[in-house]
Amino acid sequence: MGGGCTGEMRAHQAKLNCGITIPNLGFGTYSFGNDRDATELAIQMALKMGYMHFDTAEIYGSEPSVGTARREVIIDGRVDYGEVIIMIQSQQSALKQTLKNLEMEYVDVYLVHWPVKLKPWVACAIPKEDEFEPLDQETTGFGMEKCLEMGLCRGIGVSNFSCRKIQKLLNFASVPPAVNQFCGELGIHVSAYSSHEAPDDCWESNAVVENPTIQFIALKHNPYS
């Protein structure tokens, strides 16, 4: 994906209802048992290939890697300060630490990661419905709007919200979500996501990266081959 890849990626963008323009194709930074050096290397390679939109979260443990890789490409002069779009999911109480990890004064889009709270559960077990606790959407929504007012983010959004939860949120929200990582409606941008998976991940599968079509595309566009 070398050569003109950066230009191609920048040609395919979406403008959010908060005024931010983001690339349609993003790079997720979750991996179970996150290895900071490996994650940082992956992000650096993604930046070289033209990715300008990165998704991270407090629970991923990848925020420092994202911050370091972003700083290095800016210092190298490969991108301007505001070109790399960062989308995060973080608890409000941890947002300032998140910004410190990312070496940023603000993030581009700040999301609620789950519309529920998780009780303690085994890391690689998929929780059952009765293991979720209700989320106070109104308090959380007002808190995120406050973060927006304070300049800690340029846009706010949600993740894994159903259309019903979106409607409930809009009943009291002063600022509508700019993004939903699940389904889109009412001018809210849908940001789809998918895990590449790995043998040491929760699903213990490498089926995606071993898919013949995926491998063909990767080898065809590999800038290091």
UniProtKB/TrEMBL annotation:
Instruction: Fetch the Pfam families from UniProt.
Output: Aldo_ket_red (PF00248)
The regions listed as transmembrane in this protein's record are none
A Gene Ontology molecular function term of the record: oxidoreductase activity
Task: Cite the NADP-dependent oxidoreductase domain residue spans from the record.
Answer: 25-181
Instruction: State the name under which the record lists this protein.
Output: NADP-dependent oxidoreductase domain-containing protein
Recorded source organism is: Escallonia rubra
